[in-house]
Amino acid sequence: MLAIDAPGGAASDPGSMVDVEIPTPVPHGHDLLVAVDAVSVNPVDVKNRGRAKKGDAPRVLGFDAVGRVVAVGEDARRFGVGDRVFYAGQIDRAGSDAQFQLVNENIVGAAPESLTDAEAAAVPLTAITAWEALFDRLRLGADSEGTLLVIGAAGGVGSLIIQFARALTRLTVIAVASRPESEEWVTRMGADHVVGRDFADAVREIAPGGVDYVFTSFTPGNIDAIAAVIRPRGEVVSIDETGGSIDALKGKSVTWHWELMFTRPIHEPDDDYQHELLTRVAGLLDAGEVSTTLTTTLSPLDAATLREAHALVETSRTIGKVVVTGPWGAE
């Protein structure tokens, strides 16, 4: 049994995701066949839903997953049958909302031993995105100083941006949070300062010379405010479409970076960077240096529960991560 994207509208529409039976896939090459125990739902899952058309072959959604390896391809060497793993998957392959999924071992890590399946499933996609944003795009490191503004700080990626900056750099972190509960959350994640949705004046008081770096997951409508608070020759990394022009940043010669964690799996499938990254993140989690961002757990794993999870995420008001765990509803 698995949850399939079907022609339909809102997540509340029973036809938007349905349960069907399809053959269990067979691993080849560097693939692992994973029995999925828990998945999380990300904004990209919501954006990806509803693209199926009548008559299309079954289309499995989902990215983040935790599960157990049940078979391996002939070239797979990193993991064996019985290993517990976690990963974020690929945008160009069948997804994780299935009892069994094929995934390239180069983008898989051993699941953190100290975390439950739900706690671990909340992490991979957002951890990879946050890590690549800070350490690949912005090229930050252990000695990096300055000020980082995090827009969308209470979300899954923003929560890990804050934690990684706190644990692995010397940056001062300013988090944008619009509600009391999100303010409390980002403070718990480690933000040094918290400002509201209309953040420009508050940020200028904290950093009169301008912030050095900006991470944004909510870009439309914030370009002018970013331009107002960033220092000359500052840097922005975004995971969100701009919704318009970024010309307001030209006057300060600001560098704009895009971050998409699916770039490596699609264009560099032999690269083991994300395997190594998830291995490092699992170590940080087991050492207590960063924590899971799980806030909501739903069960069982079936299309109805996944529709409920999608409905929560598409409100854009969730804090942390929503995870759906087994058992599988049709078992």
TrEMBL record:
InterPro entries: ADH-like_N, ADH_Zn_typ-1, ER, GroES-like_sf, NAD(P)-bd_dom_sf, Zinc-ADH_QOR/CCCR. The keyword Zinc applies. Residues 9-324 form the Enoyl reductase (ER) domain. The keyword Oxidoreductase applies. This is Zinc-type alcohol dehydrogenase-like protein. Keywords: Metal-binding, NADP, Oxidoreductase, Zinc. Belongs to the zinc-containing alcohol dehydrogenase family. Quinone oxidoreductase subfamily. It comes from Microbacterium galbinum.
